[in-house]
Amino acid sequence: MNETTSEPGTPTIRFRTNRMEAFSDGVLAIAITLLVLEIAVPTAASANLLQAVIDAWPSYLAYFVSFATIGAVWLWHTVITEFLDHADSVFLRLNLLLLLVVAFLPFPTKLVADSLRSTDNERVAVTMYGVNLLLASVLLSLLWRYAAAKRLIHPDASDEDVVLLSQRITPGLGGYVVLIVIGLFAPTVAVFGYLALAAFITLPGRARRPSRAGGGGKPTS
Amino acid sequence: MNETTSEPGTPTIRFRTNRMEAFSDGVLAIAITLLVLEIAVPTAASANLLQAVIDAWPSYLAYFVSFATIGAVWLWHTVITEFLDHADSVFLRLNLLLLLVVAFLPFPTKLVADSLRSTDNERVAVTMYGVNLLLASVLLSLLWRYAAAKRLIHPDASDEDVVLLSQRITPGLGGYVVLIVIGLFAPTVAVFGYLALAAFITLPGRARRPSRAGGGGKPTS
Amino acid sequence: MNETTSEPGTPTIRFRTNRMEAFSDGVLAIAITLLVLEIAVPTAASANLLQAVIDAWPSYLAYFVSFATIGAVWLWHTVITEFLDHADSVFLRLNLLLLLVVAFLPFPTKLVADSLRSTDNERVAVTMYGVNLLLASVLLSLLWRYAAAKRLIHPDASDEDVVLLSQRITPGLGGYVVLIVIGLFAPTVAVFGYLALAAFITLPGRARRPSRAGGGGKPTS
Amino acid sequence: MNETTSEPGTPTIRFRTNRMEAFSDGVLAIAITLLVLEIAVPTAASANLLQAVIDAWPSYLAYFVSFATIGAVWLWHTVITEFLDHADSVFLRLNLLLLLVVAFLPFPTKLVADSLRSTDNERVAVTMYGVNLLLASVLLSLLWRYAAAKRLIHPDASDEDVVLLSQRITPGLGGYVVLIVIGLFAPTVAVFGYLALAAFITLPGRARRPSRAGGGGKPTS
């Protein structure tokens, strides 16, 4: 199981993936949980709390969209690391870039939640939001393609699985570009589009993981 | 120990459980720790800090109830993953839904803490809070039933243990429904009820875990 | 290494310690990192930022004391889990209580930071703070004693090590009681005392861990 | 692989590194993710959201610099723990000191973001920021040197790798000292310098890790 390509003397550094996974899980878990802090609590002094809570619907919508998106990023990230045998220093830097983009998401989320109520600035906020989502999608795709190109992938993974995953990791990109354009004209529609996109494009339905869950498993993770 | 049902060629993806556990631990740990941020600090300018601190009792009560509830969710989640052999993509999505609901809890917690002092809006806040707790309980139950139905459970687990856990994971649901109704008439009573419910219905007292702690253990976690 | 006391048929649940460790690490890491949010940033409008930054010294002091204390809790918690073979459901509940107390600490920390500048309310804030620290110390001690009494400890651990650790885990308690009393008369002195206490009473200097680091190791963690 | 220097009877405590890694990953992940909370969201009431978002550039700059720096600290920390066989209590304390300094970073980050707009107080804020970065770099270097001096390093690591890493972990220090001095005269230039420094000095390009990724791996992590 472990007779991987660890030629001694290779000049590049090979990292175990466990700390990269733990750090990524941490950042994604925190970003996804911080989102709730952005929902402004109606002041108790308000005459009608029920009305105030209902009026805050853009905050809930933004919460759900960002939660679904970060959740989808986490799922794809998990799929990638299931295939990963080890990491190199470029992969770790690309991963940090992805985390930078995802950790930034609470900021445009808040902008969207605020602006959906005051229709004036919707377009700016929703476009920023869409660009942020697009960047996350691009970096996730880059991460996978780099791992495939540099053979960081577990040797047990079949070539067809790798090809299949490479195909399936792409469609989100087109969707985000289309929705960014739609958002210039109909921002609220675009926000619901981002929700649908995150819900639909989450997991490859057909690709198979290298058979490690039941069998051997990486010793270091 | 590991000759699980990993028929090669199976079209569904089998995930190791370790990243799902790490991500869930992260989200639950952050949600439970963020609760303290919702306790408004009395301004130092207040003439009598002791009085101000005592007057903030609804904040402490809400803190304890939410902490106990998220703690109970974590305990049950740990019981489920102790039985789990592997996850599939539907399980991971159900788990994300559960995390979405739990990560949302600080928001109604804050509403309850604020409204218990201004008796006017108590009913709305406490009902929202109860529905959130009920949803968490429903999703936890769904997670377990899905795992049992799809045979994601470790093959060493005895059938009686699975049946026993299925029975014990239910009662919380009835309690939450009853308390939501009580909360419509006596909100403060319901909040104490939620505290008692979280304290009592935490762990199955009789179910036995598959004997992994002392023996083999999952290789991948 | 693994022929532990796992009599099949035992009615109590035996938990692997890895999720308890991960969840505790998460809560402690978040509590320790949230502390910085309590330091109020001087407004950029202030005529003299340097003076404003210097005037905020009670915030830095409170930050250091709480950081050192949570760090000490983490160190002791790590020592305990190094000895731990498995957990039971009571241990997990005691652990949740400890986490509840530690996760609450940012609140009195903020009170202390605010009140040290306005000398009026110092006594109330520092006493609350001290009681919180004392409770954390008591629960940490309880956790260890429960583990020792219920034989949750790794069978490789020598009896003398267990006795030694039981002796060394106590002194913090007396120190906190003394400092709480001192704090009633000289609050600022007590805060420096808490800093010294956290710095000194951190790790047992002589107790030996069961030899797992170099040798076998728990397979599941 | 595991016949390490675990002489039984050694009086110092040997810790497995997994909890230290998990706790450090947690603190670094939280600190890096909290940074986004420091970006003030322009109020929706502002006439021109686009202008307001553009005017907030110092916040984004400070976000990127601090993210890159904490990312670099995490990368170096991972390199160190890849070489680490076990920890002792002094190493854990040094590590806590490093975490204290890194967890403090969001505070001067906020100061820098605020002051870059009001040119008056730039110098104070940027100097505080630089000293914080320098301290992190010094502690990271100390951590490695202590591990090398006390032979906490995995016995498989070659001496040349250890020497090489000792050389490469130093240059950041000089850079920070120079930039602190530059910051006294040209604060904004220094901030861009910190960004460049974090981007460049991240990973040793030549040092080789002990061959564990493909081969054995530590059993306990």
Task: Characterise this structure.
4 copies of one chain form a homotetramer. The first copy, chain A, is mainly α. Helices cover 65% and strands 0% of the residues of chain A. The first copy, chain A, has 9 helices and no strands. The first copy, chain A, has helices at 18-34, 49-55, 57-83, 89-104, 106-115, 122-149, 159-168, 171-185, 187-200. In chain A, helix 1 (18-34) runs parallel beside helix 4 (89-104) and helix 4 packs antiparallel against helix 6 (122-149). The longest helix of chain A has 28 residues, at 122-149. Chain A is elongated. Chain A starts with 17 loop residues before the first helix and ends in a 21-residue tail after the last helix. Chains A and D meet through helix 1, helix 4, helix 5 and helix 6 of A and helix 1, helix 2 and helix 3 of D.
Short description:
Four copies of one chain form a homotetramer. By secondary structure, chain A is mainly α. Chain A has helices spanning 18-34, 49-55, 57-83, 89-104, 106-115, 122-149, 159-168, 171-185, 187-200.
* Annotation field: number of helices of chain A: 9
Elements of chain A, N to C (H/E): HHHHHHHHH
What integer is the average pLDDT of chain A?
79
Q: How many individual β-strands of chain A?
A: 0
Biggest β-sheet strands, sense, barrel of chain A: none
Largest interface, Cβ cutoff 8 Å: A-D, 51 and 52 residues
Q: What coarse outline of chain A follows from CA principal-axis ratios?
A: elongated
Which percent bin holds the helix content of chain A? 55-70%
Strand content of chain A: under 5%
Spatial separation of the terminal alpha carbons of chain A? 14 Å
Low-confidence runs of chain A:
1-11, 204-221
Protein structure class of chain A? mainly alpha
Oligomeric state as shown: homotetramer
